[in-house]
Amino acid sequence: MNSEDIESFKIIAKMCDKFIFGIDRSKNFALQISARLDDYADDDEYLDETRVALSCYQPGGGEFLFNEKDMLRKVIALKAYVNKLLSNNDP
Question: Domain map of the chain by residue range?
Answer without folding.
Answer: 3-87
